[in-house]
Amino acid sequence: MPLRGICSCSFGILYFILNLNSFICPTAGYVLKDCRVTRNTQAICQNHLKTFPNDIPARVTSLDLSGNLISKLNKTDLENVPNLLHLDLRRNLISEIKSGTFVCQISLEALLLNSNRLGKLQEGMFDGLVNLTELSLTSNKIQTVAPAAFKSLTKLKLLDLSHNKLRHLTNILQHTPHLQTLYITANKITHFHSWELSNKSTELISLDLSLNQLMVFRLTADIFPNLTRLDLEDHGNKNHIVWEVNDTSYLSGVSKLDISGVCSSLHGLQEVLETFNSSLMYLRLNNMNDNLEVLINISCKIPSLTSLKVSNNNIKVIRSDMLHLCTNLKELDLGMNKITDISDNSFQSLRQLNILVMKLNRLTSVPYAVRKTGILKLDLSFNNISVLGCDDFANMTRLRILHLSNNHLSVLKNCVFRDVVNLKHLELQNSSITKLNGAFKNNMPNLQVLYLFNNQLTDLGHGEFKALNSLQNLSLQGNKLKTLQKGAFNGLSNLTYLTLESNAITQITNSVFRDLKALKTLNLMSNHIKYTSEKPIPYPPFAELSQLETLLISAQHRRLKSALPQNFLQGLTNLSVLNIRGNELTSLHPHTFNYTPNLNVLYLSANDFRDLPDNLFSPIKKLKGLYISRTNLRSLDFLLHANLTELTFLQVRKNAFSVIREPAMLSLPALVYLDMQGNSFTCNCDNAWFLQWVITNKQTQVSDAYNFECNYPPNLKGRKLLDIDVRSCTVDMEFICYISTACAVIMTIAVSFTHHFLQWHLVYAYYLMLAFLYNSTHKNKRAHQYDAFVSYNANDEGWVLGELLPKLEDEQGWRLCLHHRDFQPGKPIMENITDAIYGSRKTICVVSRDYLESEWCSREIQVASFRLFDEQKDVLILVFLEDIPMQQLSPYYRMRRLLKRQTYLSWSRADAHPDLFWEKLRQALETREHPMGEHLRLTVEDGPPGERPDQ
After folding, report:
1. Which of 158, 188, 218 represents a domain boundary (last residue)?
2. Does one domain contain both 845 and 737?
3. Beta carbons within 8 Å of 903's beta carbon, 6+ residues apart
């Protein structure tokens, strides 16, 4: 291919590549318009969408579209997400689902359509959902179910049709043979007939018919052999329920029954309870004000009953005989009543009782009756208890869980918990406690969880928790602690979680946490801790917490800008999560994270850094999540030296940078999610690379990128970044250098090749062009000044002047043109040569080996040969002074060509007949208008010089 063609092709390819981005579809990348992908396979789209998004990656298995404005599902909406396992469409405006919408969702297992506007379940609506196990349609407007609506749902196990407008249950179980849980709460079903559901046995385990105002419950066949839970709760129904169960064995497996609020005669309710006489274990009798005591006695006669809930029944007093038949109860819930008094012997007969719930009542003290029980859990929360006595929990050694929250305890006594030696979980939150008074200094060796949050504690005494050597979780948030004294946490050698959030702590000393060797999470958020200098402190506060994994110290309330000592985190060698957001920090010392090599997640948002040291993050090479929003960062160049090769999540919202440089992003090879919302961008070539990267990269999802706005230049302010056309900026300089270098190399090779093999062709073409120009200029005004121009080499000048010149000029009278004699001084030599050749009738070339190697002789013969072929006349005479073999003529392409078409004279062969040589030369000079090929033969030889006839 000619060099010109090669270069044209190369630049054509370059142009195509530089404009390739014009063919790239924006949705082919990883930037989503209205969604974000978390954990790589879960997509969340909550952006007031009116239609189903079409740019969700196919690999997504969980899709959350809840809380949007979607009104209809079409056949093509879900074609691009064939791998879905979970689809959440709750709280939309969906009133129509086209037949075949889910035909590609053969993997879907859970479909949530709660709180939409569906009015009818039509045939084909759920076609394709052959592996669906959970379908939730609660809070729609469904009135009817088509006969084949659930035809594809052969593997359905849970169906929720609660809060709709169904009036009957026809067609619900017809095509769902493996359904186990059915919720039909709060519909308009007044009559339950078993034949409406099925004519054969089902696998149903749980049936919820609550809040339907049932008037008839009719079971005429054994269709529920596996039913264990039946909910018939009702409120406000004034019609008595008619209970018709042909055979009590039909419900012999039911162990959980809720008949709260059911209106019926005492006889009718007794009939209902007797149906479950042999299997019932859990019974709810809430909102049963009439005949409650009788119902309790009837219920407690069921030998299998172990759990009874009688909440919200306006009970004020518990008498000693009220529960005397409930000897088998293990759990009793008396919450949400108005109980003010409990007889001392009320629970005496409940010898198997383990759980007693009396929350949300009006008790003013711990009932004495509880001391006579061997319960494991006691819930007295949300009462009016103001004092806890030393004997309130006397002899309750079996107690494991005690809830006393939301009372008015104020002050604890040191003896109050002396007998609950096996207590593991204690809740005292929201109880206005101001003093602990050593309540936890003795006799609680097994306590594991202690909630004391939202009280009025101002101080923790030395060794306040020293008896709690099994404690794992201590919550003190929302108190009024100002200082933490040395030894406040003595004895808590097994504590793993400590929260001191929302107190008034101003200072931490290293001795405070010295005993917390096992601590893994420490929450110090929203206090008043303050440091004014980055200089190292002599006693770092966490030096003893080598096992700590999570440290939360954000949102410290300060009036002035503060700093963080460079060794503040010393000792935290296992720290994984650090939150120091919202602390009004203006800088961080480069050595801040030298002590936390295992840090995985770091929250630095809501500070005022502006810039960060280049090597700040170098020690934390395992960092995977970095949150650094609202810090006034002016660039992301700090990432260049951070060495964050494992970082997968980066949040840099609402900062001050406007240009994203390529090296900064490329320094994060593992980045999966990038959140830059709330920034304003420069919309010119400075961000061209970033814009293309956002669209085309397949690894990193850039959250909300379609809403990024331009801030500069002024004429583009407010425009969307991804709407800006920067194709002219996206020039790959490395590729251009590659193409340029390649072309230069190819050109060098071509020139070298041409110079070596085609040198004389090019020279010939050059002189041919000069001759052509001269001929065109002088064609019509040509005059022959000489008979012949003699072209010869200076080394042959002796023969020309001694032999040729005397013979032709002196004897024969020809006028010859010789360059040393007749060329015009000062005139360009090439112009002299051209004028001499065209100013003579003939050109005599005196050829020798020196002649062939002469540059000027070569030019002379080139011009002469052009005239020969241009005028088609015999104007060229070749005189060989010596024999030159053909192989020596091969490099001289033009000379060989002339020998094939032009006769010549050989001086080396004229030794025997010199007169004949001069005669032939005279004849050649005399011929005038003969065309080429019609001139006289000058020699008898037919071959080229050097070839003898006898060879």
Report:
1. 188
2. no
3. 878, 935, 937, 938, 939
List, as one string, the DSSP characters of 746-761: HHHHHHHHHHHHSHHH
Q: What is the mean pLDDT of residues 205-211?
A: 95
Q: What is the DSSP string of 518-562?
A: T--EEE--SS-------SPPSS-TTTT-TT--EEE------SS-B
The span from the CA of 748 to the CA of 293, in Å, is 109
DSSP 807: I
Read off the pLDDT band of 669 (50, 70, 90). very high
Q: What is the pTM of this model?
A: 0.74
More confident residue, 423 or 1: 423
Domain membership of residue 295 (yes or no) is no
Tell me, what's the pLDDT at 29? Answer: 47
CA 871 – CA 838 distance, rounded (Å): 11
Tell me which residue has tokens 């990269």. 697
Contacts of 269 (CB under 8 A, 6+ apart): 259, 262, 291, 295, 298
Instruction: For 493-505, give one letter per residue: b (16+ CB within 10 A) or e.
Output: eebbbbbbbbbeb
The per-residue pLDDT of the chain, averaged, comes to 86
Residues 6+ apart with CB under 8 A from 346: 318, 319, 320, 322, 323, 367, 369
pLDDT the model gives residue 762: 65
Closest by CA position to 326, among listed 312, 340, 354, 307: 307
130 domain-assigned = yes
Identify the domain containing residue 140 by its residue range: 30-188
Tokens of 711: 């801030």
Q: d(Cα 484, Cα 582) in Å, to the nearest integer? A: 23
Question: Do residues 738 and 870 share a domain?
Answer: no
Helix (H) or strand (E) holding 829: helix 829-838
Q: Which amino acid would we find at residue 391?
A: D
Nearest Cα neighbor of 476 from 524, 444, 404 is 524
Query: Cα(787)–Cα(785) distance, rounded to whole angstroms?
Result: 7
* Residue of 809 and 869 predicted with greater confidence: 809
